[in-house]
Every structure is written in C-alpha cells, then in structure tokens.
Structure prediction request, 196 residues.
Amino acid sequence: MMRTPLRRIAVFLTIVYAAALVAALRAQQPASDGPRYANGTNLMRPADYREWIYLSSGMGMTYKDGAAGSTTFSNAFVNPSSYRAFMQTGQWPDKTIFVLEFRNSDSEKFINRSGRFQTELSGVEAEVKDARFPDGWAYFQFKSGAASAAPLAGSTVTECIDCHTKNTAVEHTFVQFYPTLLDVARAKKTLKPGFR
Ligand code: HEC
Prediction:
C-alpha cells in the first residue's frame, strides 16, 4: 500500500536533483564575453575591456578640414571571441562589442624629452553589433563613473551612424585604422565595395 507513493516521491526527488545539477553545471560554464545589458538595451560598462584584444590607438585624430589637432589618444578594444571570428572570416559576428577609450597625454615629464605618452582617462564609448537593435548596431557613451549607458539617440547617434556608415572600411568599423585587421579584411575580401 505505501510503496507506490514512496516510489513517486523518490522519482520526484531524483528529477529535482537532476534539474538542480544541470542548472549548477550551466552556471559554471564560462560566461560569453559579448555585450551585457541592464534592462534589455542599456549596455553594462565592461569592467575588463583592458583584458580584451587591443586593436590600435589614434592620437589627436580630427575629422574636419582645418580642425585643430588635439593631444588626446583613443585606444580601441574588442571582445576576444569576436576578434577570433574576425580573424577567420574578416567579418564581425553578432554580439560583438567595441570599446573606444580616450586618454589625455603629456610630454616632457619624467625621462621623456619629446613625443607624447598617455595619462588619465577622459572618456569611454562603445559600439555593439547585436540583432536586438533595429538596425543591428548601437552606440553608447559612458558618463564618468556610470555602470551602464542607454543607447545613444537623436542627433548624437545620427552623427555616430553617419560617420560610421560612410567612412568605414568593414561594416560599421574603422578597420582601415587597425593595421593587423586591415590585412585580414583584404585577404578575406570583406572591405566595403566603396572603400579605397
Ligand atoms: C566624424 C567621424 C566619426 C564620428 C562622428 C564618430 N566616430 Fe567613432 N570612430 C571614428 C574613427 C575614425 C574611429 C577609429 C579611429 C580611432 O582609433 O579612434 C572610430 C572608432 C570608434 C570605435 C571603435 C570601433 C570602430 O568602429 O572602429 C567606437 C566604439 C566608436 N568609434 C564609437 C563612436 C560613438 C559612440 C560615436 C557617436 C557618439 C562615434 N564613434 C562617432 C570616427 C567617428
């Protein structure tokens, strides 16, 4: 009489235990290194982007004729798994995240007599390729100390999109300024047709 309910309880407990085990194993798997969001579309500022793949630096780059040069450096980083995909294909996979870090610079300090070296952080921007956004790409600026940022909107993002569409060598990215990637895009023939 008692055996059937006991057996049912035993089967039930075994299933619960197995489900808990699967959940625990899933949690142990290495997390993906792609973009993380706070509420669907607000990008979390990646804490470890300095451990990602370094693409290159610009120094004092300006984009308008006659604009005065600046002494700001920009350092570009991409998440490692997307970098590895780009090396294979010359294209960016979905869930790619780029960080552009801005740093002030200084000269004639310590043993340095000429040339410039980087100093304090002055800004952090990001760009993601992610199908969750209507046109597959989104742009962000992190305010100082902010843990997350909403996707840029209005005239600010229009400028980002405009320049990152018309002037970029591969998709929406400035691969022409990342010399090692430019070689890969040439070899894989993924440069945009209009890019010279
Ligand atoms: C007038 C042109 C121009 C505009 C406007 C512009 N960018 Fe860029 N962006 C560049 C160039 C050139 C580079 C690569 C050079 C470098 O190393 O700084 C770049 C690189 C980047 C990168 C690194 C990945 C990549 O695409 O190569 C990010 C992230 C980025 N920009 C974010 C932004 C955001 C966010 C905005 C809007 C607030 C913006 N950009 C507006 C010209 C522009």
